[in-house]
Design brief:
By secondary structure, this protein is mainly α. It has 5 helices and 2 strands; from the N terminus they run H-H-H-E-E-H-H. The longest helix has 17 residues.
């Protein structure tokens, strides 16, 4: 697992190296519900439901036409996209390159306004 994932890597490796076999109802093998995802991401179920309905979790399906289920692989893909988006967003210091509002206003005042251009004389 990559660093920064929601499950601590060291804990997972310790669990996998144990002598006892995994239980048959392993959480990693069961598709997640809206409530599971809400707890996982610390969001309200309505927010997670909107993500699922928007298509942010590929492979999500409705069980019996009612309850959403999301495969673990879709959750990983969602997290990977979120991490990638965070890296591509501009850094906090980027605001310094933007001109202050009063400096922009001064530049606008210097520009001639439409219809008020100086008329050349002959």
């Amino acid at each position: 697992m990559p660093p920064g994932s929601l499950v601590p890597r060291d804990w997972l490796l310790e669990q996998l190296s144990g002598a006892s076999p995994l239980p048959s109802e392993s959480p990693a093998l069961v598709d997640l519900t809206i409530g599971d995802l809400a707890r996982l991401f610390g969001k309200r179920p309505s927010t997670v439901r909107a993500w699922v309905e928007r298509g942010d979790f590929p492979g999500a399906y409705k069980l019996h036409g009612k309850e959403w289920r999301v495969p673990a692989s879709a959750v990983e893909a969602f997290q990977d996209r979120q991490r990638g988006r965070a890296k591509s967003e501009p850094r906090l210091s980027a605001w310094r390159s933007v001109k202050p509002a009063d400096q922009k206003a001064a530049e606008v005042r210097k520009r001639p306004q439409a219809g008020h251009d100086a008329v050349p004389t002959r």
